[in-house]
Design brief:
Order of helices and strands: HHEHEEEHEHEHEHEHEHEHHHHHH
Strand content: 5-15%
Structural class: alpha/beta
Distance between the termini: 37 Å
Largest sheet: 7 strands, mixed
Shape: elongated
Number of domains: 2
CATH class of the largest domain: Alpha Beta
């Protein structure tokens, strides 16, 4: 194992090099949100330092197609041609290093064809979800650069923390190249995860929408000691990003973070409707250009459902009647009838709550209790409870508690988490 004191000294030296990037980010707070932002991801900030923190280091890179410079060059390729930087291994998370695998499909190790570098899968065969000591041999610094969605059940943040733990055990330093939270940095929604329901789709005790960047969350995972082995961690902050920005405010080009999250506004829809997919009985448009943007089924009345949801007067979102034939992979060739969501004010829309209000509206307008129907089909609730972070949400919904009451009940957790995350925030 490498000397932890040596690794800590490296972090201190890197911190001195990148401190001006933090000051530049603070200065960007003076730019009005209405002005088109110029946000530089961590990789571009690192390049502005001429890659000095990584010179002379053997580097592993955990990334996927979302890890790109502002100009669109893959981070791992930019690092591989940086002077004095030696990239020795590549790593991929769920969906693979190339980002093409479907959700839940395990990905084998591979060789990158142009460089012959090994690609280690951290979503490989069996339960392995972290780097092994053998994978980390010969690596001085692990660089993490993956665009996340800001949703607790999206597994990249599970891989992030498990990688921190593995690197801590092996004495490997970690550098996180930061990226925007596409939901913004002020949104905190939902109850915190109950540790009894900890899983790969819910690894950390945070709300469903947690309002942190990957770099901030990495700092919190270590600072709160949610992992056993703390590593020498440094975060290269973005320049120009402020907490009020959702993705479209950043001026950055979105690269699909997974097959069903193809656009910059897709994370909004993912959080607003994704839980419904774990219940079943409705079509969310996944696998189509309307991924997570619709809530539909052949038995729904589009106008009645839209009217019921719009009557709730939820801030920043409008529900439009929708009817369309979907392809067979989506709905067996049936017409999908229901609503299409439109976010008119993404920064104010209560995303997680929409899942609950939609369940209520479906029952009110169609008489269909999706939970009861799922039980009659022999549905197991294991995955829903893991995604929801406990069995409490399901039991309250099954008991008929109103969406409004459940959303109110989250307030205590949301306030407590906002306070607890304060020491780890990097941006105004």
């Amino acid at each position: 194992m490498r000397s932890l004191s040596t690794a800590a000294s490296w972090v201190a030296a890197v911190a001195l090099l990148i401190c001006h990037a933090v000051f530049a980010t603070d200065a960007a707070a003076a730019t009005p949100k209405s002005a088109k932002a110029t946000v530089l991801p961590g990789i571009d900030v690192l390049e502005s330092l001429d890659f000095a923190p990584l010179r002379g280091k053997r580097v592993g890179v955990l990334t996927n197609p979302t890890g790109v410079t502002r100009a669109g060059e893959p981070t791992w390729r930019r690092l591989a041609r940086a002077p004095g930087v030696k990239v020795v291994a590549l790593f991929g998370a769920e969906h693979g290093f190339d980002g093409r695998a479907r959700a839940g499909v395990e990905v084998p190790n591979a060789i990158e064809p142009s460089t012959r570098l090994p690609i280690y899968s951290l979503y490989g065969q069996g339960p392995l979800r972290r780097p092994t000591p053998r994978m980390l041999e010969g690596i001085d610094v692990m660089v993490y650069d993956i665009q996340d969605t800001g949703c607790r059940s999206y597994t990249y943040i599970s891989t992030l923390g498990l990688m921190l733990d593995a690197c801590g055990a092996a004495g490997v330093a970690v550098m996180v190249l930061d990226r925007p939270n596409p939901l913004g940095g002020t949104r905190v929604e939902g109850a915190r995860l109950d540790p009894r329901f900890k899983s790969f789709v819910g690894q950390w005790p945070i709300p469903y929408a947690y309002g942190l960047t990957a770099g901030e969350l990495a700092r919190m995972i270590q600072g709160e000691r949610w992992i056993t082995n703390r590593c020498a961690l440094t975060v290269v902050p973005m320049r120009g990003w402020t907490r009020s920005m959702t993705w479209n405010d950043t001026g950055l080009r979105w690269v699909a973070s997974s097959p069903n999250v193809p656009y910059g506004n897709s994370p909004l829809y993912l959080v607003a409707t994704g839980m419904l997919g774990e219940i079943g009985g409705v079509n969310l448009g996944t696998g189509s250009p309307l991924s997570f943007q619709i809530i539909g089924a052949p038995y729904l009345d589009p106008r009645r459902l839209a009217a019921a949801l719009n009557a709730q007067k939820l801030s920043g979102v409008t529900f439009h009647p929708f009817a369309q034939d979907m392809n067979r992979s989506e709905a067996d060739g049936q017409e999908v009838r229901g609503v299409r969501l439109e976010f008119t004010r993404p920064d104010t829309a209560p995303l997680v709550a929409i899942n609950l209000y939609a369940l209520e509206a479906i029952k009110k307008t169609s008489g269909r209790d999706l939970f009861r129907q799922a039980v009659s089909r022999g549905k197991s609730w294991t995955m829903f409870d893991k995604v929801a972070g406990s069995d409490s949400l399901r039991r309250q919904l099954q008991a008929g508690r109103s969406a409004k009451d459940i959303v109110r009940s989250w307030r205590t957790d949301e306030v407590a988490f906002r306070e607890r995350r304060q020491p780890y925030l990097l941006y105004p």
